[in-house]
TrEMBL record:
Pfam families registered for this protein in UniProt: SIS_2
Keywords (A to Z) from UniProt: Isomerase
Gene3D superfamilies reported for this sequence: Glucose-6-phosphate isomerase like protein, domain 1
Protein name, UniProt field: Sugar isomerase domain-containing protein
Domain SIS: 33-207
MF-aspect GO terms: isomerase activity
Length: 242
């Protein structure tokens, strides 16, 4: 029987490897986010299927950035229809429908989470954002992209201004090591990479005197008051904060 210590060691090693492999890209991603804060623009975040867990991690979260606009379509969430969500992610044209409602532009940044990085929705979303002048941070797996069947003219790796490689292997599973079948890692690694960006943005931003807009937990003293000020600032631009 596998022990918690074994799983912890394996996962921590993979997280450390992802941090080391992405050192330069993480700094470049932090540069883009800091640019958003300096210009009072927005960080848009997007994903499909289980990559929406990473989008939820970026939005209205204690300790998270307040200047985040989540791009979302309910048909992309497995809870609203598992098989249908897969078909929806593969439907060309949906990204433009979502961007028609609200799209990032010059000064904004789009963060797209997609481990496979080949389906039309994330790829076309990134391409559409770049056409509109926004930078794109692609959080994906180069190995998964290389192994997956092509479903778009390009891949998320090709469309990213900055590419963060989760190092997740094709199939996402991590256990057992000699033939992975379970214990998928993409959600854990995506959240870790995002937190590394947040930490660098905070450290560098505060060092240069920037007011980094961060949500507080509503369950700590002063949290509601701090969040009220942020809601007053961002609700007019981020309707999902209602």
């Amino acid at each position: 029987m596998v022990s918690a210590t074994e799983i912890w060691k394996s996962t921590s090693e993979k997280l450390a490897a992802a941090q080391e492999a992405n050192a330069e890209a993480l700094s470049a991603a932090a540069d883009l986010v800091l640019g958003v804060i300096r210009s009072d623009a927005l960080v848009f975040t997007a994903g499909a299927g289980h990559s929406l867990a990473a989008v939820a991690e970026t939005f209205y979260r204690a300790g998270g950035l307040a200047c985040v606009y989540p791009l979302y379509h309910p048909e992309l969430l497995p809870l609203h229809g598992a098989q249908h969500s897969t078909k929806t992610e593969r439907r060309s044209g949906l990204a433009e429908e979502v961007l028609a409602e609200r799209a990032p532009g010059p000064g904004d940044v789009l963060v797209v989470f997609s481990t496979s990085g080949v389906n039309p929705y994330p790829v076309e979303l990134a391409a559409g954002a770049r056409r509109r002048g926004a930078a794109v941070i692609a959080v994906t797996s180069r190995e998964c992209v290389a192994a997956a069947p092509r479903r778009s003219a390009t891949t998320l790796v090709e469309e990213g201004t900055v590419v963060l490689d989760s190092l997740v292997i094709p199939g996402d599973a991590s256990h057992p090591a000699d033939g992975p079948r379970t214990a998928p890692l993409s959600t854990v690694v995506n959240a870790f990479l995002w937190n590394l960006i947040l930490a660098e943005v905070y450290d560098r931003g505060t060092a240069e005197g920037l007011d980094v807009p961060l949500w507080r937990s509503s369950n700590v003293e002063g949290g509601d008051e701090a969040n009220t000020a942020l809601l007053a600032k961002y609700l007019p631009r981020v309707p999902a904060l209602r």
